[in-house]
Write a structure and sequence with these properties.
Shape: globular
Strand content: over 45%
Distance between the termini: 45 Å
Radius of gyration: 17 Å
Strand order of the largest sheet: 9-10-11-12-15
Order of helices and strands: HHEEEEEEEEEEEEEEE
Structural class: mainly beta
Length: 209
């Protein structure tokens, strides 16, 4: 029913991939990835796309968030009762130094009801960190994902990925961040749910090392 209504977004934002949906005010909030074209063939930018949609499938608001170099992926969204939205994703940065490779930072962003960004908090400063699932519980934000970096200050082997989790307050302050060495390659967090005494996290891997 909504596919036809959303098709017009391709004209404004390029191809839109929807990765996550949550209830928001009197409708829904979708997040995913879209392409903004700046007028030159080499200036396509991948941005985190947010769509505020009413129950009839009509788009009430649309916005895009571009990271440091315009290759930003939106992976998960959660909303709060006070009409804020929290988005988890990752931003790939390519160094201008030919001797340095690109790296990926995870991020959490807070948006108001008009889809205007309030703050963005980056997680990870080296290698690869992807924030893939986000939950909101007891006025706190919980983020889950994968990383090949050392987020908790402990040395690790960079050839494999760890599961990481982080707790933030609603002002974007990181209250806790930790990771679990899984000795797995190409690990990806697919789902995270709140349980009575913690969280249940599931995912998949390419192979065991």
């Amino acid at each position: 029913v909504w596919k036809k209504k959303l098709a017009s977004l391709e004209r404004d934002y390029g191809f839109v991939e929807i990765y996550s949906l949550n209830k928001f005010e009197n409708g829904f909030l979708m997040v995913g990835n879209g392409i903004e074209y700046k007028g030159m063939p080499d200036s396509w930018q991948k941005g985190c796309t947010l769509l505020k949609i009413n129950i009839n499938g009509q788009i009430e608001k649309a916005n895009q968030l571009f990271g440091k170099q315009g290759y930003t992926s939106c992976n998960s969204v959660v909303t709060s009762d006070d009409h804020y939205a929290y988005v988890a994703g990752d931003d790939t940065i390519t160094s201008n130094d030919s001797n340095s490779s690109s790296y990926t930072q995870g991020f959490v962003s807070k948006f108001n009801a008009n889809l205007e960004p309030i703050w963005t908090k980056y997680l990870g400063k080296e290698r690869m960190t992807k924030a893939q699932k986000i939950l909101f519980d007891n006025n706190q934000i919980f983020v889950f994902g994968q990383t090949s970096a050392s987020l908790n200050g402990k040395l690790k082997t960079f050839s494999t990925n760890d599961i990481f989790w982080s707790k933030l307050d609603t002002d974007g302050n990181v209250l806790k961040i930790d990771q679990k060495g899984m000795d797995l390659e190409n690990l990806e967090v697919v789902e995270a749910v709140k349980e009575s005494n913690g969280f249940l996290v599931s995912g998949h891997v390419l192979n065991f090392s």
